[in-house]
Amino acid sequence: MNSIDRLLRPSLRGRRPYGAPQLDVSVRLNTNENSYPLPQPVADAVVRAVAEAVPHLNRYPDRDAVELRTELADYLGHDLTIDQVWAANGSNEILQQLLQAFGGPGRVALGFTPSYSMHPILAAATGTDWRDGGRDEDFTVTAEHVVAQIERHKPDVVFLCSPNNPTGTALDPAVVTAAVEHGDALVVVDEAYAEFARAGTVGALELLPGRLRLVVTRTMSKAFGLAGARLGYLAADPQVVDAVQLVRLPYHLSTLTQVTAVAALRHRKALLANVTVIRHERDRLVRELSDLGLLVAPSDANFVLFGGLADSAAVWQSLVDRGVLIRDVGIDGWLRVTAGTPGENDAFLSALATVLKSA
Ligand code: PMP
Question: Which protein family is it in (predicted)?
Answer without folding.
Answer: Belongs to the class-II pyridoxal-phosphate-dependent aminotransferase family. Histidinol-phosphate aminotransferase subfamily.
